[in-house]
Design goal:
There is one protein chain. The protein has two domains: about 150 residues, no CATH class; about 80 residues, no CATH class. Helix content is about 40%, strand content about 20%. A seven-stranded mixed sheet has the order 1-2-3-7-6-5-4. Strands 8-9-10 form a three-stranded antiparallel sheet. The longest helix is centred in the C-terminal third of the chain and has 25 residues. It is globular, with a radius of gyration of 21 Å.
Length: about 280
């Protein structure tokens, strides 16, 4: 389940525009609801717990495949390839020491990172970056971004690591007067949520094996499940099926049912919904 609108055809796009135009003309609350949705896009995920560091109390958000402190903005987020002033200051002041400290904690907690097998532990999976909401008129968040492999660690391991790293990061930044006012986010995310993915249509051979007949039934059953849960019943936006994965060769990727919801849906409650789907 995703918060990102799935790719659609030009015809569907045009139909969507016509529908939106019609909705504006007949729905007096259209612009009010649109404003509410934009505000929801800028909100962070619901916190699941809290802890404290030398800088004070901090909240933690913990959802499937993603844990962070303070609570993270909802996906998709953009990693800025250029250092913002805040990230540049951190990097120049204590960036190397910071990343070595983070890597040491991850090793102590036995977090399985998404490094290529030939890379040194943490070399490519632990970075100091700015994480930004695409097209939002707000500065990005200085973030220690950790890309991990969710298959090999219980979620509690990620959460424990985030707690320790956040405490270490706060303690370190408070030593430098120039960085005391910069809050640094810690984010552990599964590699599938940050790596480039490739989408392609499902080959006709699959359709001829019965998928074309099964798909309407699958859609009906999924919609029935979505209607049962408060977090999806009024927030569902679309559903598609296509091949999606990390391989440029489309045939190697898996057939994927892709469901989107709006940003007012509470992702911390998605677990049981996904399990049932």
């Amino acid at each position: 389940m995703s918060e990102v609108a799935n790719p659609i055809s030009i015809a569907d796009s045009l139909t969507g525009r016509r529908t939106a135009s019609l909705k504006r003309s007949i729905d007096p609350d259209f612009y009010t609801n649109a404003t509410r949705r934009r505000r929801a896009r800028l909100q962070v995920s619901e916190s699941s717990s809290s802890d404290s560091s030398d800088a004070g109390t901090f909240e933690i958000s913990s959802v499937r495949y993603r844990v962070g402190a303070p609570p993270l903005h909802k996906l998709p987020l953009r990693t800025n390839p250029i250092d913002t002033p805040a990230v540049a200051l951190i990097r120049q002041t204590f960036g190397y020491t910071l990343l070595r400290e983070v890597i040491g904690i991850l090793q102590a907690e036995h977090v399985t990172l998404a490094d290529p097998t030939r890379a040194e532990y943490g070399q490519e999976s632990v970075k100091l970056v700015s994480r930004e909401i695409p097209d939002a008129a707000m500065e990005g968040t200085p973030t220690v971004l950790i890309t991990a492999d969710w298959r090999f660690n219980p979620h509690v391991v990620w959460e424990l690591a985030v707690r320790r790293i956040k405490k270490a990061v706060d303690k370190m930044r408070l030593r430098f007067s120039s960085a005391q006012g910069i809050d640094i986010t810690v984010e552990i995310v599964t590699k599938e949520l940050v790596m480039e993915k490739f989408m392609s249509i499902i080959p006709r051979s699959y359709l001829e094996l019965g998928l074309d007949q099964d798909w309407p039934v699958i859609q009906y059953d999924i919609l029935d499940i979505m209607d049962k849960f408060e977090e999806t019943s009024s927030h569902f936006t679309s559903m598609s099926i296509f091949k999606l994965g990390l391989s440029k060769a489309g045939r190697e990727n898996t057939n994927t049912v892709y469901i989107t919801v709006d940003y007012e849906s509470n992702e911390s409650k998605w677990g049981p919904i996904l399990d049932e789907v």
